[in-house]
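Regression check, FE2/S2 (inorganic) cluster case 173:
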Amino acid sequence: MNKILKLTVNGVAREVAAPDNAILLDVLRESCRLTGTKRGCDMGTCGCCTVLIDGENRLSCLTLAAQAAGKEITTVEALGTPNRLHPIQAAFSEIGGSQCGFCTPGFIMTTKALLDRNPDPDDKEIREAISGNLCRCTGYIKIIDAVKVAAKELAPEPARPTPPIAAPARRAK
Ligand code: FES
Ligand code: FES
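Current build output:
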């Protein structure tokens, strides 16, 4: 029997009719029509279905939609548009880190979660972060390079040094 689930997806409150055991990936793709999140393995091994739940990367194929109720769900659709890419998407595109439409959304969302919690990751931290995302056809070098470029793009501007305060001039007596 369906129940009404209250979900917040990409900042939009939605009410979705779904059974208790509905999987978040299905609800996103079929009820919300957000098909950017991909189904690869459907068993938690590829990372294609990665979304953010309250800012943390989660596999939507292993998450009950009911578990995400009341939380902030973010999918790849929230990041950029074809005409205005998010800096992570732009970096993947520019460096050649994105190859196919199945694995790329998952890598992008995992990178978003990584850079939100660690804006300047080293190679080891990047490798660890993306270890749950599989690309079956290319290597990971360009993906890692793209994460580093995105990190630079998103880095806050360095604070300008504060000019020294001039001592007040002494009055002549
Ligand atoms: S589809 Fe979820 S991990 Fe592969
Ligand atoms: S480029 Fe997507 S699985 Fe390899």
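Comparison notes: Helices lie at 24-31, 87-95, 104-117, 123-129, 141-154. The chain has a mean pLDDT of 93. No diff flagged against the previous build.
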